Structures are given as structure tokens and as C-alpha cells.
Amino acid sequence: MENLDPDVPNRSDEHLSPPTDCSPAGRRYAITTFGCQMNKADSERMAGILEAMGYQHEEDELAADLVIYNTCSIRDNAEQKVYSYLGRQAQRKRRNPHLTLVVAGCVAQQEGESLLRRVPELDLVMGPQHANRLDSLLEQVERGQQVVATADHHILEDLTKPRRGSTVTAWVNVIYGCNERCTYCVVPATRGGEQSRTPQAIAREIGDLARQGYKEITLLGQNIDAYGRDLPGITPSGRRCHTLTDLLHFIHPVEGIERIRFATSHPRYFTQRLITACAELPKVCEHFHIPFQSGDDEVLRQMARGYTVSRYRRIIQSIRQVMPEAAISADAIVGFPGETEEQFQNTLQLVEDIGFDQLNTAAYSPRPHTPAATRPDQLPETVKLDRLRRLNGLAERCARQRNQRYAHKVVEVLVEGANPKNPQQLMGRTRTNRLVFLPATAGHGPGDLVQVHIDVVRPFSLSGSLAPSA
Ligand code: SAH
Ligand code: SF4
Ligand code: F3S
Predict the structure, then answer these.
(1) What is the DSSP string of 65-114?
(2) Is the dihedral of CA 349, 352, 355, 358 positive or negative?
(3) The pLDDT value given to residue 288
């Protein structure tokens, strides 16, 4: 029978897996997540959908009846990882036809049907825009179809409860997709165009989180400064909620939420109004993640980033004027095609001048269907890796130096849980997003805001002890 669902490629019978008893009751699922916070948030929602269908969670992906790889293709090595995992599962599937194998996320979107050719054992290939309709896609799989869901799709509100990894901090998507065209980046192709959720849906989710006892939320978007520009004008209450700044004001009153964060900021759209709101709204934490990618104007131009190094410096200056303690983190790429040693030196200079609390660094990796990948002036791996090593050395020095300001100070820490590597310790974060370890003490647990005296400072974490209460 011809299927009429645009997501389902028509296949001849010999491609159909035999209809098997795949009814969810009693079946166990495992999800392995690669990539960024968006993917992690998508996985939490997909897990919520599966549990609403009757599936049970299974830690061991080699023991599960349904396996989802939620994939990332930001760099080639992220993508390659998936194929080795899939190889193992394909072998399992040949022994156990009842196994359901799913590839979700950015590699699924990028590769689409060609993934089926590469791994014919797959049951479902689904792009990120389809995460919230996992249930209906699995129903098609249960009918014996191999399904590819990569068509551009309006993202539906997820009506189930996500299965969140934490009981204290939660991610809240506010805008999906990205309309930028950074010449190195695969994300617009994998996540599609911008789609903002309504302020009401966001506030409802945050209200539910507060009622469940969550204390901290992080608003998520690939370019969160774009929030609201695709929404129609006025909210039912007659209030405009067109920008991230408006949204922060709109959700700030939710009772029970103590801390609000947001990521990722784009220097092109970052506004003074946003800085002022962050300084004025007490729950908004003093941490900004604003990737700069390169410290050289010509490289930025070739990356199509839409700002100059001096604009970036001005943003940081403005933040520090009103929030001198604010932590600044960023992403940077080394070895963009044609990047000269001198241009790379400009990146080092910017890092040295700003003094980042944390820097995520990457060697440029050519990605399919991106303009920079076709340039003839690709740099040799050895040059990229040498620059990466030098930048990492500097970034670590900066982080260590920045962390010194916490030595022997008392800071507010939101306890997130036990240290997985040492149950004698609790771990939590400062408002500036520094990871802090402290001895587990009777009477304190996840969700508590405690005052901690910092005794040990490392580049990427701090340790301390409970400060005597005032
Ligand atoms: N939306 C965010 C970043 C999303 S991707 C922004 O605009 O900054 C996360 C990070 O991966 C990027 O900040 C960039 O530093 C890195 N990245 C993206 N594409 C890359 C590529 N082709 N090679 C190496 N690093 C890349
Ligand atoms: Fe990629 Fe640029 Fe969009 Fe960030 S803003 S996701 S780097 S295209
Ligand atoms: Fe990777 Fe997709 Fe996120 S490519 S970084 S999982 S948006």
C-alpha cells in the first residue's frame, strides 16, 4: 500500500522489516546523547514521550529494546563517533529483530535517507525538528515501516513531561533553529529556521518546573538573542514580548525559581537593554556565554559573523561596567580556511585582553554543505592542532587566574547533588557558573542555596566548606 505520510519514503516490500511485536509495555529504552544542550534537552523530551508510551528507562544501551542515538555533526569527529556505536547495534539487530534502532538529531537531519543505505538495520531516522513527535513516528515503525523524518516541520509543543536529568536545574527551549549563515556551521542545515515558542508556553513550563521544586532554569537557543522576532505582535494580555529582554521580564516573577540563565548569545544582536535587564533582575545570573569565534576582523568577515572585534570588546566592557563580577565564557575556532599566523595571534590577543572564565575551543572542521568547506585554502591539520594547543594553554592560564578571585571568599552555591566521583561530597554551582565541591553535610541536599567558603581554586572547579551562617 502506498503510504501518504510525506515523512515515510515509499519502499518496496523487501525493504520492510517483518512486523514484530513492538508494543511498548515492558520494553526498555536507552538514549545516548551527543552534542550541545539543545540535544540534551531534546533527549529529555524524547525520554518523557517514551515513558508516557509505557517504555521503561534502561542505562545499558546493549540491553535495551529500543535504542536512540541523538547525534551531533558540529565537527567531523562528533559525527564519526556515531557510526562506530551504530555498527555495534546493527550487529545486535541482526541477532534480535525485535530491537528498534533510531538515529535522531543533527547527523540524522544531515544524512537523511543515506543513513539507511549505510546502516540498513535502522528503523527510524529523525531530524531535531521531529523530536516531539517521536510517538507517532514509532507507531509507523511498529507497522513495519522504515521511517525517515527530515522534512521541514513546525515544532509542536510537547505535551508530555520531559524526563529531566536533574531535580534542581532545568533547560527550557525558547527558540529552536538558527537563521544565521556562519560559513563554517552546519546548524542552520540541521536544525532549520528559527521558531520561537510563545512566552505563555515558556512561562507555563517554568511554572510547572517551580511547582516540581526546580530552582534554576537555563533558557536555550542557538542564537537566543533572536528570540521573538518570528512571533506575532502582542500577547493576549496586551503586553509585548518580542525580545529576550522582554521574555526575561515576563518570566522573572515565577515563584520558586531562584536563578535564571540563558545561552547562547550572539555578539551581533546582544543589546545594552539586555545587559541592563540582567543587572536589574536579581534572579538572572552574572554569567554570559558569548562566543566570539575569532579575534580577527577579516576572519570574522569571512565567517559571516556580522560584528567586529571592537564591538565584541565593547559588549564585554559594558557588561563589566554594571556587573564587575560577571563571568564571561565563549567559543573560539582556530584554523579557519586561510587563517594566517598573524590573524591567529589576534585571537590570542583578544583572549589575553578579555580574560575569559572559560573558553571552548575547536579546530576548524569542514562540514558538508557549508561554504567554508569548499574553500581551496584549507589549513593542514598540523597547523590547526598547533594553534589549538597554544590557545588551550592560554585559555587555561586565564581560567586559573580568573578563578583566583574566589580564593578565601564566601560564595552562594546552589547544590545540584552528590559528586558522582565522590559520594562524600556535594557539588553545585556559583551564580557565575563555577563548579564547586563541598563536603556532604547532614541537613543539606539538592536544591539548597548554601554559602560556601572557597579553600581550593583550580582552573575548572573550586572546593570549599560551608560558611558559618551569619
Ligand atoms: N550558536 C552558537 C554556537 C553553536 S555551535 C554561536 O553562534 O556561537 C557551537 C560551537 O561549535 C561554535 O560556537 C563553534 O565554536 C563550534 N563550531 C561550529 N562549527 C564548527 C566547525 N565547522 N569547526 C569547528 N568548530 C565549529
Ligand atoms: Fe551556527 Fe552561526 Fe547559527 Fe551559531 S549563529 S548556530 S555558529 S550559524
Ligand atoms: Fe551538535 Fe546539532 Fe548541537 S550539530 S552542537 S547537536 S545543534
Answers:
(1) SEEEEEE--SSHHHHHHHHHHHHHHHHHHHH-TT-EEEEEHHHHHHHTTH
(2) positive
(3) 98
d(CA 174, CA 244): 9
Give me ligand 2 centre to Cα 225, in Å. Answer: 12
Q: How much is the pTM?
A: 0.92
Ligand closest to 366 (CA) is 1
pLDDT of residue 233: 67
Ligand 1 neighbourhood includes 362 CB (under 6 angstroms) = yes
| pLDDT for 441 | 84
Domain segments of the chain: what residues?
Answer: 13-149, 169-404, 408-466
Cα 185 to ligand 1 centre (Å)? 6
> The domain at 13-149 falls in which architecture?
3-Layer(aba) Sandwich (3.40)
Q: How many residues are there in the chain?
A: 470
Give one word for 466, left, alpha or beta, with left for phi > 0 and alpha for psi -120 to 50. beta
Among all bound ligands, the one having the nearest atom to the CA of 110 is 3
CA of 187 to the centre of ligand 3 (A): 6
What's domain 169-404's superfamily in CATH? tm_1862 like domain (3.80.30.20)
The kind and range of the H/E element at 231 are: none
Arch. (CATH architecture) of 408-466: Beta Barrel (2.40)
C-alpha cell at 236: 493576549
- The answer to whether the Cα torsion of 257, 259, 264, 270 is positive or negative is positive
Burial of 418 (0-12, 13-18, 19+ CB in 10 A): middle
Residue 214 corresponds to which amino acid? Y
Output the pLDDT for position 24.
80
- Please give the average pLDDT of every successive group of 10 residues along the chain, which has 470 residues: 36 38 81 96 96 96 97 94 92 94 97 94 97 96 95 88 94 96 97 95 96 97 95 64 92 98 97 97 98 98 98 98 97 98 98 98 97 98 98 97 96 96 95 96 90 94 86
